[in-house]
Design brief:
This protein has about 240 residues and is an all-alpha fold. It has a domain of about 150 residues.
């Protein structure tokens, strides 16, 4: 089994099954690269399941993303405006499917942020498309809108310059958005690390409980054997005394 086959198999499993199955495959194959595969968060697992069970809906989401990125690159505001309803519908549909898979145990905002990242960023889209997502995704930068702010074609008419206060406010919002995106980008790995640590503690506790059960059973057996040995020795002594 190669790494791709192992990943394909592991990322169909629930987060609770992932670690044990991954460790088993590492032992069976001796491939340490498999051991580096990250356990998916519940959010990532739910998105992976939707990728497999609803490929058409996910394909629509990613296709809209490709078309929006192309329109964004050329500054085609009309195309972006036309794509906006499709984007909203696709994100909403895939979000509902993922929430249903996870029985609602997801943060909708984080889920939509991940799907928006897949629309906006080609690398994020590839991660979602692979069905091997391990954590939440985020995107830092301009978000495609109906009128792309960084590439609007100038018109012959003079544009009114925004007041300084509006410019400062926009810069403050952009700075706050960037800071949020930086921390949001670390959220997925942090959640995965926490989940793995919790799972490791749970495995250790299960092993300790099992060891205590074995120790308790061994102690009971020892008491039975010791008691029976004493009785047998006493009977032997009695028989020997009769013979003497």
């Amino acid at each position: 089994m190669n790494l791709d086959e192992a990943a394909r198999q592991l990322y169909t499993l629930s987060p609770g099954e992932f670690t044990a199955a991954r460790n088993r495959l590492v032992k069976e194959t001796g491939d340490k690269e498999i051991g580096r595969l990250r356990k998916p968060t519940v959010l990532a697992w739910a998105v992976n399941q939707v990728v497999r069970s609803h490929p058409d809906e996910v394909a629509e989401l990613l296709t809209v993303g490709e078309e929006m990125r192309a329109a964004w690159a050329t500054g085609d505001g009309d195309a972006l405006a036309a794509l906006a309803p499709r984007r909203a519908a696709a994100v909403s549909k895939v979000s509902r499917l993922a929430l249903k898979v996870a029985s609602g145990k997801l943060a909708p905002a984080e889920l939509e942020q991940t799907l928006d990242a897949a629309v906006i960023d080609a690398d994020a889209a590839a991660q979602v498309r692979s069905g091997r997502l391990a954590g939440a995704l985020s995107y830092s930068g301009f978000v495609p809108t109906a009128v792309p702010p960084s590439s609007v074609r100038p018109s012959s008419a003079r544009k009114k310059q925004p007041p300084a206060e509006s410019t400062e406010r926009a810069e403050a919002v952009a700075a706050a958005r960037k800071r949020h995106a930086e921390w949001a980008g670390q959220l997925g790995p942090a959640v995965a690390e926490r989940d793995e640590a919790i799972e490791a503690v749970a495995e250790a506790e299960r092993a300790l409980t099992e060891a205590r059960k074995r120790a308790s059973a061994a102690e009971r057996r020892y008491e039975v054997v010791r008691r029976e040995e004493t009785k047998a020795r006493q009977a032997l002594d009695a028989e020997q005394a009769k013979g003497g």
